Amino acid sequence: MNTGNEQFVLFGFKGSGSAAIEAALEWAGLPYRMVRTASWAKGSSLDKLAAINPLKQIPTLVLPDGTVLSESAAILIHLGLTCPKAGLLPGEPSARARCLRALVYIAANCYSAVSVTDFPQRWTASTDESAQQAVRQAARAQLHHHWGVFSDVFAPGVEQASSAATFLSGLRTDGSDQPGAVDLLAAVVSKWSGTRAYLKAHRPGFLALLERIEAHPRVAPVFARHWP
Ligand SMILES: N[C@@H](CCC(=O)N[C@@H](CS)C(=O)NCC(=O)O)C(=O)O
Fold it and tell me: Which of 55, 69, 137, 183 falls between 20 and 30 A from 16, CA-CA?
């Protein structure tokens, strides 16, 4: 798709995964134009989205050269690598490797399970409402388990009061402490399907970390737009 200008074009919707990409573009100082659409928002520009991403999923980002990027983790990694000053990814290779693992973990294990809870009818041949509800419930339990494991692996010690873990991206090599791409994606994807309520009961330290991310001045304005 040739956008006809030198702007990024982001397909997204209020309360969706496009929130993470909006924040990343803003941190990187990259001007972008929004196309507000979603597969559940009938009458929107869904045909335009379908033409570039047949899955009709958001976020989908069109780069100024016309390249289409879908998959939130891929978009964040691309922006992190091409705009290093935005601080989306750590510069230090081991820390960056951990962040890449965490980003792909969220996409593969959490975002995918959210999709099953949202559209259980896609995951059973049964048209019976109770069968679909059973799929939704199982996906929800698996999603919550995946977040518990995420917390244990990527924020170890966060349940201890003495934990120094401020953000998931870890301390910068210059000693500064800022959220990065993993923080953005974790804060957004954990908004859905009862994840925050589960974490409140089972990983309160990790929930507090997510709330710190949301409250950070680089993140809060975007979250206020999406979840006023
Ligand atoms: N694997 C994709 C999943 C994106 C996704 O599921 N987005 C949701 C909105 S938050 C969507 O557009 N769902 C519409 C559908 O599947 O019909 C990613 O990581 O970005």
Answer: 137
